[in-house]
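Entry type: protein chain
Record version: 2
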Amino acid sequence: MLESTDIELEEERLKQLDILAAERAMTPPDLLGHYSSGSFGFHEAVHTTSIVLDLVDDQLLHHPAIAGNSEWFRLAAKASESLFNLYQSMGAAQLAIRNTDEGKRPEDLNASNDD
């Protein structure tokens, strides 16, 4: 069974970040800024996570072949839990951005139509 170490995962993440930035002719910091919490790209990732979570729950956990095998069901349930935790973590990041804007005047948010 495949299980990556934290070091292997971090190396893969950084490699993937470099590849994604190069594909978009950006630096990794610029890419991260473009897809930061609150951006359309961030929302796209949250939405995709929700769709994949629904697919795992509806198509795997409720499939007779998976439900009939305790090991497969356990693996599918772990995938569902991981996707749920990812969705919740991303949602919390999104809410943290919104909470910093609460109580500010429009001109403090650069949202005024007076310019």
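Comment: The mean pLDDT is 89.
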